[in-house]
Amino acid sequence: MHSYGGATASAAPQQLETQERPLGNLHDATLRNSSVGQHAGDTGGVIGGGSNSSGENSRCESDDEYHRNRSRSTTMGATTAPAHSIGIESGNERSSVYASTSVQYDSTEQPTSSHNAEGISPMASFNEERMRRKLQFFFMNPIEKWHARRKFPYKFVVQVVKIILVTMQLCLFAHSRYNHINYTWDNRIAFSHLFLRGWDSSREVESYPPSVGPFALYEKSEFYDTIDYAVLGYANMSRSIGPYDYPTKNNEMAPLHLCLYNYREGTIFGFNESYIFNPDITELCLYLPPNVTTMGVQAYLKQSGVELSFSSLVKATLVFAIKTVNFKAYGGPLSAPDCFKFDVRIFFDNSDHDGQMLLSLDADAQRLRCKGDVEFISNAEFDAALRSMLNILVLLVCLLSFALCSRALYRAYLLRSQTVNFFRMHFGKELSFEGRMEFVNFWYVMIIINDLLLIIGSSLKEQIERKFLVVDQWDTCSLFLGVGNLLVWFGVLRYLGFFKTYNVVILTLKRAAPKILRFLLAALLIYAGFTFCGWLILGPYHMKFRSLATTSECLFSLINGDDMFATFATLSSKADWLWWFCQIYLYSFISLYIYVVLSLFISVIMDAYDTIKCYYRDGFPISDLKAFVGTRTEEDLTSGVFMSNMDDFDGNGVLDMLRQMCCCGRCRTGSASASGGSNGPSGYTSLTSIIK
């Protein structure tokens, strides 16, 4: 291998002693050759130039020496010829060591070292070793980069800080959201007792199977009585325990809004099997004044000229508003009270026309800006300031994480383009697809996505807590913050992957993912057939098969062994053939998926796990890029060979950008003069200097 900077012929014995070193130490041997050549410059010829007159331990000659030595080399050809032969011979031996280490992993064509070529120029050798070191540094983990170049792991520290801040933010928001949802739900239950005729507390507990039947009306008189009960309850709202008021300025009862939805024509003559029907739906809305409590809704409708036909009635709604103040706000004891407006909506559903009109109540909460004589004595400002500070910190950390990861992806793209061009020029081949994908870090892509989600969620959270939003955005905010926090914790797996014990799980999932997807595609086809068949045949007779969604949920639960006996016990016995079909259907599905499909699914994952274990024992397959990069040892990390600036687009670090912003052009001028006038070891020179 040729010397890069003023090594003489006496350096050849030193090169031969390093032939058994690993591939990662080629650069160290080159450095030692240069050092020997500097001290022996008076006894031997010059390889590619003269010795360094200043005596510095430089890895590459300067531009002036390059021009002087090139003109002087024409008169020293006879003296330098033996040195060239020794250098080439040692380079061939070193390349043979590299080739032997790469063939044992991959039988495909690997890139050949440029040292194999006779008469290779020192600049080509330097470029190849420089590219190799650059790629080795790129594929290091943060700990190795710290040992090799003392590069501070900014992204790692930012991710750790982000996990702590985001988790604190999520815990506070989850507590606040629970209090908010619980408050609106409790008010909905209170409204059901106040305004729904026949409401019972047993309906407030959600149980499966349901302990009570549907809440419905069956007589025409019940429809009018239910509306009268709601109007009377709204008129006497002051008797309720809750601090409820009317939405008017003088706190007087506001009119209720009743809407009737009817078919345009819907008359049925059942005695002779005839009808008059027009499917167009018309909407009729009217306000019920406060005096309707004395005369009744039915009489008021007749007085208004409204004739109600239940055979054509599709649905009806009764809407009214209630205002209240919540002293125990969602933020805790230090938070100020909140003002709310509830839009209560009683819904009558007669769309099926099956003899029962379903009845339900819903209450949408809308937060208002408290105004008027507002007096609140507490340290609420301090609590609000702390929450806002946490939100702002999360926003800043996520923005910094987004910038660092985007910059890392962009720099990886630049290095990939440079590597592709290098393979074309030096090896005459294209970099493989596996080699190109080595530069794409999907962990960074996931971090960028969760940064965007957390930025949006934190912005919504700040607006909610600052009461800039009057609409209910709790669910939207929780969606962004929840998914973002989920991806943040997934990102911790990236750093656990640096350790062999934890990396086995990640590599197993990565290895098994394509096979699992293909396996699930085949299993999904069988699952879809059972789902559609069960929905069609068992839907009218089994409560778990009433819809396509519930059918799929029931079958998935059976796969996991959940609620099997209840599914068999609730089979319909209306017909013998139906009972026998249910038995055959359920037994075949359970046997197929539990004993066959799940076993095959586990075997696919175990096969991937066994493959990863073999890779750890025998070695991982190496792409052409990894074969070119080679291996590195602990000695390489601590030898200082990575301390030089090997990156053509380096100088874009966080400290560099801050320094440029603060010092403007003075820092750049000072650094340029310092680098130009330095008399100490300069490391590798730039490619521009070599080309000159």
UniProtKB/TrEMBL annotation:
Keyword set, alphabetical order: Cell membrane, Disulfide bond, Endosome, Ion channel, Ion transport, Membrane, Transmembrane, Transmembrane helix, Transport
Topology with respect to the bilayer: Multi-pass membrane protein
Signal peptide: none
Basic and acidic residues: bias regions: 58-68
Pfam families linked: MCLN_ECD, PKD_channel
An MF annotation (GO) of this entry: NAADP-sensitive calcium-release channel activity
Catalytic activity: Ca(2+)(in) = Ca(2+)(out)
Domain Mucolipin extracytosolic: start-end pairs: 182-371
Start-end of Gly residues biased regions: 42-52
Domain of life: Eukaryota
GO annotation, cellular component aspect: endosome membrane; lysosomal membrane; plasma membrane
PANTHER family: MUCOLIPIN (PTHR12127), SD02261P (PTHR12127:SF7)
Name this polypeptide is given: (Mediterranean fruit fly) hypothetical protein
Organism of origin: Ceratitis capitata (Mediterranean fruit fly)
UniProt gene name: MCLN3
